């Protein structure tokens, strides 16, 4: 039986993006700082599709240029005469490439070559899209030419030697893409949005790094993958790889490969992350013990919950609760509940 897709896109973003971006990992803290740095650099330069209705059709001035805007309005189907690196600095969008809807979470990067056509649909009008635009002339000489002729995965795609009309890169847990994009955006800000030697070097470094994170590359979250994520969100407490495979009519082996291809994450890791995300929410309820929370999110024993929680967060549930639960005038009791101090 094929599961009926039920969750609205705007609601889905509240839980899907943190799960896919490892928002609870220690490395994510510095990645979030990089995002803040980039937003600050863009604060005086942000454009909107309202003031640039045909923004997507404007030919960049230099060999490397950058356009940033909020996704307040959809962008119609269009092509480019330059290579576009579409980066989600903040929020989420639906990128429709060659007629296929792809959900792009914050921190993801979609590369499109000269043959690509795409449109953007609004999920959150406060989302910030950054378009890094590279003219073909950039790759005509020097180190960029050597990169272009190298035969790596990125250069082959840019040359049109790929069956896919797009290439989506999911960021590493360390935030490699977000850190580099933040540096590029800050360099544009420092140069008054003009090309500079620093920008040339940083973009080349970005291209080189993208070639080294193939394990984090994926085909994009299409509608069927969104249905799977929806089903996990509703049934996270009891779901297994086998039950999800049965629900969608796939073998377990095919399902796990399909899910990894379209999310960049293993199915078991997303199920575990969803349960732990829910557990973190439940820890805000002072009446719940840690044992009750473990049971509520689908763990048969507290010891198993403790082990999984510690592997993900680097600390035990009790210590995490003490550090993160803001309770005015309260303290953590021995059983893991929160007691009010009178």
Number of helices: 13
> Class of the largest domain in CATH?
Mainly Beta
- SS elements, strand count: 13
Measured distance between first and last alpha carbons: 54 Å
Which regions contain 5 or more consecutive residues with pLDDT less than 50?
A: 1-7, 23-27, 47-59, 327-335, 338-342
CATH architecture of the largest domain: Sandwich
Label the structural class.
alpha+beta
Which descriptors apply to this entry?
disordered N terminus, 342 residues, 7-stranded mixed β-sheet, Jelly Rolls, 13 helices, Arc Repressor Mutant, subunit A, alpha+beta, 43% helix, disordered C terminus, 4-stranded antiparallel β-sheet, single chain
3D architecture notes:
- Helix 2 runs parallel beside helix 5 and helix 5 runs antiparallel to helix 6.
- Strands 1-2-9-4-7-10-11 form a seven-stranded mixed β-sheet.
- By secondary structure, it is an alpha+beta fold.
- The chain folds into two domains: 9-218, Regulatory protein AraC (Jelly Rolls), CATH 2.60.120; 283-342, Arc Repressor Mutant, subunit A.
- The chain has helices at residues 9-20, 27-42, 142-148, 153-158, 176-190, 197-210, 223-235, 241-248, 252-263, 267-282, 290-296, 302-313, 317-324, and strands spanning 47-48, 64-70, 75-79, 83-90, 93-97, 100-104, 109-112, 117-122, 128-134, 167-169, 217-218, 330-332, 338-340.
- A hairpin with a 2-residue loop joins strand 5 and strand 6 (100-104).
- Helices cover 43% and strands 18% of the residues.
- The chain has 13 helices and 13 strands.
